[in-house]
Design goal:
Blueprint (H helix, E strand, L loop, with lengths): L46 E3 L3 E8 L4 E9 L5 E9 L3 E4 L5 E3 L4 E8 L5 E11 L5 E11 L4 E4 L2 E8 L4 E9 L4 E3 L1 E4 L4 E4 L5 E3 L4 E8 L6 E9 L9 E10 L6 E4 L8 E9 L7 E2 L9 E4 L7 E10 L11 E4 L2
Parallel strand pairs: 2-9, 11-19
Antiparallel strand pairs: 1-3, 3-7, 4-6, 4-8, 5-7, 8-9, 10-12, 12-17, 13-16, 14-18, 15-17, 18-19, 20-23, 21-22, 21-24, 24-25
Length: 334
């Protein structure tokens, strides 16, 4: 791991510990998945799950969403998978015929399902139990049950972080309809610092369809800014279909920056990396690279004096699959 270069003004050194989680399970770096599950450290010599957690997002009550999970045998002998248990309300697995024997180097992919029965956030886990008593591995799962006729907006909070005054930063969002078509007649934010683009009204989103949009943050002063982005189905109504929180900070142009670097992922077919930043330890994080970063280094120039920032990275492969977050790095700007 190399130490990042000195910041342009403060000469503050940031030791970035960014061990990227694997999109696929190469044996030589299996221990990297341990940042998702404390129990996975016991399994890294033999068993590995390709993704440390599954995020199902919003799913309408009465419907279901399926994601795949792959388990691999990294050992030199056969492993018999005895049980795969889904914990948590609304979560289940299918596509498995147990007991399952995995030969050395063999992978097996199966389905994980989230079918919420009630509204609200749900969390759970999948436990993998093999004939080796030490091979117990858990993969975390999260999802949110929503009304069937709801319009949802993602992310619920769009955090732009610090942006230089006079400069702009763009982030993308997504609107999703559930089991009924939704017509949106208007949308906007209650602050001129945040401008919505990419939509034409009236806009009809079909059942289970989605629509991308963009928000541009252009701070006018070196202070914190916040706003609400609203989407309405009736002209002039005071009750929106959906809202999204927006926040950011205007940073004075003082030449501060944070240089980041990390070890390259040893996964197959990795084509680049995303860099995420938050204002609190543990997130929430917002992506700060406008396009996929092909190298293992990045300079964040949109930082403000007196702030502390928290960084994580992810790896993206040629199938547009993104790994979980890396370990977190911290930088304080004097």
């Amino acid at each position: 791991m190399q130490l990042p270069r000195a910041m342009s003004r403060s000469l503050l050194a940031l030791a970035v510990i960014a061990v990227l989680l694997l999109l696929r399970p190469p044996a030589q770096a299996a221990d990297e998945i341990s940042s998702h599950s404390s129990s996975s450290k016991l399994q890294t010599e033999r068993l590995l799950v390709t993704r440390g957690n599954l995020r199902f997002g919003n799913v309408a009550v009465g419907r279901q969403k399926t994601q795949t999970l792959t388990i691999s045998n990294l050992g030199n002998s056969d492993i018999t998978l005895l049980q795969v248990i889904a914990h948590g309300q609304g979560f289940s697995v299918n596509g498995l015929d147990l007991p399952l024997i995995l030969a050395s180097g063999e992978n097996f992919t199966f389905n994980c399902v989230f079918a919420p029965r009630t509204r609200g956030d749900s969390s759970g886990a999948i436990s993998f139990i093999s004939d080796d008593s030490t091979q117990v591995l858990e993969s975390e799962m999260t999802g949110t049950g929503i009304d069937g006729n709801a319009l949802t907006v993602e992310p619920a909070t769009m955090n732009f972080g610090a942006v230089q005054v006079g400069s702009s930063h763009i982030q993308s969002g997504k609107l999703t309809a559930a089991d009924k078509a939704v017509t949106i007649f208007s949308a906007g934010s209650n602050s001129p610092d945040f401008v919505l683009s990419g939509l034409s009204f009236p806009l009809t989103i079909p059942a289970w369809g989605s629509q991308q949009f963009s928000v541009t943050f252009t701070p006018r002063a070196g202070v914190g800014a916040s706003a609400v982005l609203f989407f309405t189905d009736v002209p002039g109504t005071s009750t929106p279909l959906a809202v999204e929180s927006l926040n950011g900070m205007g940073a004075s142009s003082q030449g501060d920056s944070v240089d980041l670097s990390w070890n390259a992922s040893t996964s197959q077919n990795v084509i680049g990396y995303n860099i995420y930043r938050g204002l609190k330890s543990g997130g929430p994080y917002s992506k700060i690279n406008p396009v996929l970063n092909a190298s293992t280094a990045y300079t964040d120039t949109s930082v403000a004096s007196g702030n502390t920032y928290y960084y994580v990275t992810t790896a993206v492969n040629s199938s547009d699959e993104e790994s979980g977050y890396s370990n977190q790095a911290r930088a304080t700007i004097p």
